């Protein structure tokens, strides 16, 4: 293996000479010039002589953006060793000072919001507004983590023994492995990495093979902060790798926590491997999110939420609205309104102003979209509108689809599955809201849910413990677009993990209970006598 590059001027990419939509300029602004490496330890790049290259093409126009190198087992070992060394320094930095570093990272992200948002949009395919929103989500979590760095508190308790004191404290875990998905290629990393960092951990990030360039860009953005503060390499590392690297991380006892975002299939594998070594897994997996529309809904408001939830990010959010559970009294009205809105959706290049729906990530995703539509129709569903794979000018890639509306039944196998594409199932219910809640809960996933109703009895029934079984339950707000301040994640096959806000930080730390005797005797708990 060649010597790791001393300076972080080169990255894991081989940037192609083209300038579609000003992307060359964006790459230049982000410091991605030319390349040769498969991993970064924050300040240095390595894995420069790996043979295996991965071509990154944009789903927006099919153009090759760059080639990246894939990390090998040797690279992996190097990254883990460097991270272990960095941890010995980083954990000694007081938490509020670690927060100060995160504050600087947040400021750098503010400086780079435009080019990074644009690269997210171009590499992943979400519209620019959402690309910028994703970077804003990173900035928000930085701010949140800064405040948190002064609040990593435990409780104190009263001891049952005289002259004794009890309290608990939170210590860093060590190395945190982050496996992220293509759909939120940088925000989900930041939720994990920024909390992990203020908690005193170092992190190793395996971004999706579908979106590694934005990860390279993020490493560029934070390297100046690390350098200016004379921090060691290895606090934030990135490994450009395939599933093999993910498996290595899951099995590695040196990584006490693995945070993985992606499909339930992937999460079950990772969870099993991490569980077998009794490590901690933070899993944020598939959703099958529903909006309930009762006869008391503000339908105008609901339709707007449904559209953002169902076709935003081209249906590729974990929180995407996949099912609409509509009371029979309002069913026809809602159906007609959606039928009139769907064909008018502006679909096209996500960097072009005015478009609201970009492409799917790749042709596999398109195939799954089409197959799900075929299957649901075979089960008895009715395709009301959409479902076409678009072709012609602007759609040459074959990755743009017309979002689909399907009348279906909740029990159909296809409806029970999460298809990561813009398909919205319309499901009719009658009677009381409890019937709608039963349908909403009648799937294996449990991420996000919502009800549109101005009737307090209905909304409270939805929020009660007998109501929604999801990690997120909203009232008069759609299923997607959560703020970072709340804990994010879900139950059942969604994996049970909680990331981002609230007290999600606790999973990145180990809790220790301390009992201190400041008296002259040694009384035992539970009144046990053991005198010698
Ligand atoms: C995801 O899709 O994995 O709530 C994350 C939302 C975003 C995060 C989605 N804030 O839709």
UniProtKB/TrEMBL annotation:
<comment type="similarity">
    <text>Belongs to the aldehyde dehydrogenase family.</text>
</comment>
<feature type="region of interest" description="Disordered">
    <location>
        <begin position="1"/>
        <end position="20"/>
    </location>
</feature>
<dbReference type="Pfam" id="PF00171">
    <property type="entry name" value="Aldedh"/>
</dbReference>
<dbReference type="InterPro" id="IPR044638">
    <property type="entry name" value="ALDH7A1-like"/>
</dbReference>
<dbReference type="InterPro" id="IPR016162">
    <property type="entry name" value="Ald_DH_N"/>
</dbReference>
<dbReference type="InterPro" id="IPR029510">
    <property type="entry name" value="Ald_DH_CS_GLU"/>
</dbReference>
<dbReference type="InterPro" id="IPR016163">
    <property type="entry name" value="Ald_DH_C"/>
</dbReference>
<dbReference type="InterPro" id="IPR015590">
    <property type="entry name" value="Aldehyde_DH_dom"/>
</dbReference>
<protein>
    <recommendedName>
        <fullName>aldehyde dehydrogenase (NAD(+))</fullName>
        <ecNumber>1.2.1.3</ecNumber>
    </recommendedName>
</protein>
<dbReference type="InterPro" id="IPR016161">
    <property type="entry name" value="Ald_DH/histidinol_DH"/>
</dbReference>
<feature type="active site">
    <location>
        <position position="284"/>
    </location>
</feature>
<keyword id="KW-0520">NAD</keyword>
<keyword id="KW-0560">Oxidoreductase</keyword>
<comment type="subunit">
    <text>Homotetramer.</text>
</comment>
<feature type="domain" description="Aldehyde dehydrogenase">
    <location>
        <begin position="50"/>
        <end position="513"/>
    </location>
</feature>
């Amino acid at each position: 293996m060649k010597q790791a590059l001393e300076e972080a001027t080169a990255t894991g990419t081989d940037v192609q000479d083209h300038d579609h939509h000003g992307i060359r300029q964006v790459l230049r602004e982000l410091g991605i010039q030319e390349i040769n490496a498969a991993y970064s330890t924050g300040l240095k790049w390595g894995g420069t002589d790996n043979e295996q290259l991965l071509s990154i093409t944009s789903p927006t126009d099919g153009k090759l953006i760059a080639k990246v190198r894939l990390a090998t087992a040797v690279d992996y070992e190097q990254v883990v060793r460097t991270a272990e060394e960095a941890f010995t320094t980083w954990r000694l930095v007081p938490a509020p000072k670690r927060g100060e570093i995160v504050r600087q990272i947040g400021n750098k992200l503010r400086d780079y919001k435009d080019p990074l948002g644009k690269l997210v949009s171009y590499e992943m395919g979400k519209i620019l507004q959402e690309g910028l929103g994703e970077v804003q989500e990173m900035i928000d979590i930085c701010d949140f983590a800064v405040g948190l760095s002064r609040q990593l508190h435990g409780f104190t308790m009263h001891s049952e023994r005289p002259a004794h004191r009890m309290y608990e404290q939170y210590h860093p875990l060590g190395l945190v492995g982050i496996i992220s998905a293509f759909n939120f290629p940088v925000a989900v990393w930041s939720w994990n990495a920024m909390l992990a960092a203020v908690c005193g951990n170092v992190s190793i990030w395996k971004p999706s093979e579908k979106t590694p360039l934005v990860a390279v860009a993020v490493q560029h953005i934070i390297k100046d902060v690390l350098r200016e503060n004379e921090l060691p390499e290895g606090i934030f590392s990135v490994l450009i790798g395939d599933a093999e690297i993910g498996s290595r991380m899951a099995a590695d006892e040196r990584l006490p926590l693995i945070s993985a975002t992606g499909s339930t299939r992937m999460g079950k594998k990772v969870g099993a491997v991490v569980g077998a070594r009794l490590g901690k897994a933070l899993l944020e997996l598939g959703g099958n999110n529903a909006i309930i529309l009762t006869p008391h809904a503000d339908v105008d408001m609901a339709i707007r939420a449904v559209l953002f939830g169902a076709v935003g990010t081209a249906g590729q959010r974990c929180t995407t609205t996949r099912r609409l559970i509509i009371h029979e009294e309002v069913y026809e009205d809602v159906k007609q309104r959606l039928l009139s809105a769907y064909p008018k959706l502006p679909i096209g290049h996500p960097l072009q102003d005015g478009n609201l729906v970009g492409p799917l990530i790749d042709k596999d995703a398109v195939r799954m979209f089409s197959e799900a539509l075929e299957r649901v129709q075979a089960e008895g569903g009715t395709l009301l509108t959409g479902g076409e794979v678009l072709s012609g000018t602007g759609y040459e890639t074959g990755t743009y689809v017309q979002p689909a509306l399907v009348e279906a039944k909740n029990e159909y196998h296809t409806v029970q599955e999460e298809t990561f594409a813009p398909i919205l199932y319309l499901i009719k219910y009658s009677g009381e809201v409890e019937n709608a809640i039963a349908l909403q809960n009648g799937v294996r996933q449990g991420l996000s849910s919502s009800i549109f109703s101005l009737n307090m009895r209905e909304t409270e029934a939805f929020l009660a413990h007998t109501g929604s079984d999801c990690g997120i339950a909203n009232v008069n707000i759609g299923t997607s677009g959560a703020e970072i301040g709340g804990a994010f994640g879900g139950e059942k096959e969604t994996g049970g993990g909680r990331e981002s806000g609230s007290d999600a930080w606790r999973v990145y730390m180990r809790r220790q209970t301390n009992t201190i005797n400041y008296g002259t005797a040694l009384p035992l708990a539970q009144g046990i006598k053991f005198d010698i």
